[in-house]
UniProtKB/TrEMBL annotation:
Keyword terms: Membrane, Transmembrane, Transmembrane helix
Species this chain originates from: Pseudocitrobacter cyperus
Name of the protein in its database record: LrgB family protein
Transmembrane segments: 6-21, 33-52, 64-83, 90-112, 140-161, 196-220
Location in or out of the cell: Membrane
Major site of localization recorded for this protein: membrane
Length: 221
């Protein structure tokens, strides 16, 4: 089997695993069975035990990474459909975006200096764009963003319970700011209002982060 055939096979396996995982998660709503959790684990096991290089895997699957951009923009549709909610709570949402940006920048710089890591935070398409002026490695950036999102989604409900946060919009803002696409997907499971708020906070925080990335790199690195 040549490299092209192997790449096409990996792409097919990725799609089959993902859609099968979605059907499984619809039936059994357990965190370890979420497509964002289980599918990547299965793919990593496939690459490791199949002795398949990352380059061969990404050969024909690279467009899946490209689709992250349009997928993120698609979150704007429910945001537009719920403009009334956004206008009514614009001050709270603005505070959430500002807080998310400050915390993301501060924690990223602190971790980068402590562990000599590249930049992380904001959702994957934005993070890849922000990494370029900072000299980050795109593959590692994507990995850390996904890990951050899944981890935040996993502990989000427990954290909200511990902090006695019951307001849906607050949960949506927290998931969107800290857990990116994974958190936004979780927010839509909680309710449409939570999902809309998560989408808006995620997108605005991402845009702000990309715009200030060069300044962050100049001031803090």
């Amino acid at each position: 089997m040549n490299n092209f055939q192997l790449s096409v096979l990996c792409l097919a396996i990725t799609l089959v695993l993902y859609f099968a995982n979605k059907r499984l998660y619809r039936r059994f709503r357990k965190l370890p069975l979420m497509p964002l959790v289980l599918t990547p684990v299965l793919l990593v096991l496939m690459l490791v035990f199949g002795h398949i290089s990352y380059q061969n895997y990404m050969g024909e699957a690279h467009w899946l990474l490209w689709l992250l951009g349009p997928a993120t923009i698609a979150f704007a549709v429910p945001v537009y459909d719920n403009l009334a909610i956004i206008k009514r709570h614009w001050m709270s949402l603005s505070a959430g975006v500002i807080t998310a940006t400050v915390v993301a920048v501060t924690s990223s710089v602190w971790l980068a200096r402590l562990f000599t890591l590249p930049v992380r935070s904001v959702t994957t398409p934005f993070a890849l764009a922000a990494a370029k002026p900072l000299g980050g490695q795109p593959d590692l950036v994507a990995l850390f963003v996904v890990v951050t999102g899944v981890f935040g989604m996993a502990i989000g409900d427990v954290l909200f319970l511990r902090l006695s946060i019951r307001e849906g919009m607050a949960k949506g803002a927290g998931f969107g700011a800290a857990s990116h696409g994974a958190g936004t997907a979780r927010s839509y499971e909680l309710g449409p209002q939570e999902g809309v708020v998560a989408s808006l906070v995620m997108m605005l925080s991402g845009v702000v982060m990309v715009l200030v990335a060069p300044l962050v790199g100049w001031v803090m690195f």
